[in-house]
Write a structure and sequence with these properties.
The chain is α+β, with helices and mostly antiparallel strands and 173 residues long. The chain is built from 2 helices and 10 strands; from the N terminus they run ββββαβββββαβ. A hairpin with a 5-residue loop joins strand 8 and strand 9.
Length: 173
């Protein structure tokens, strides 16, 4: 089903025994696996079918963060967590966020967000400025959440990665 511009629905794994949402290893985990975009559906399918993925879950890790956008504490629930066999025979643990590349902030050399320029029109409207500010806030919020996720991941022995349509193989280049 489409909601807005995004495909949404419930994912049913073919291998529920390796899915943390289904195998009972996480006592407070929600049983349903909801994908909120076609990108999330593709990644859930990859986790389910990839032989090297030992275990995976959708929306099972919660991380607290503080947002300077609204000066409040929030909870960030990562899209996915998975454990996989690596080339050395060991196990790697991953936290993964799935986002369109347009929502991934580009950082400069000192780690600051490079915001897009205001739209260049003959007449900049209040609405165009509000849309630009809203988009900049999305970039700020994503950066704050992901910085908190990176800290959590380091403390807990995980890797953190943002995956876009490019990594999913949906865009060439």
């Amino acid at each position: 089903m489409f909601a807005g511009d995004y495909l949404k629905g419930e994912f049913t794994p073919k291998n529920p025994n390796k899915c943390l949402n289904k195998n009972g290893k996480l006592p407070n985990s929600k049983d349903k696996i909801t994908f909120r975009s076609s990108y999330e559906m593709i990644f859930a399918n990859w986790c389910d079918l990839e032989d090297d993925v030992i275990e995976w879950g959708s929306e099972v890790i919660e991380i607290q963060y503080f947002s300077k956008v609204d000066n409040k504490k929030h909870r960030y629930i990562t899209d996915f967590v998975f454990m996989s066999r690596n080339a050395d025979g060991g196990v790697d643990k991953w936290l993964v966020e799935i986002k369109p590349k347009s929502q991934v902030p580009v950082l400069n050399a000192v780690g600051e967000i490079q915001f897009p320029e205001l739209p260049k029109k003959k007449r900049v409207t209040k609405k165009s400025i509000e849309r630009w500010q809203s988009f900049c806030n999305v970039l700020k919020t994503n950066h704050e959440k992901w910085e908190s996720a990176r800290v959590w991941a380091r403390k807990n022995g995980y890797n953190f990665k943002v995956i876009t349509e490019q990594e999913l193989g949906l865009v060439v280049g």
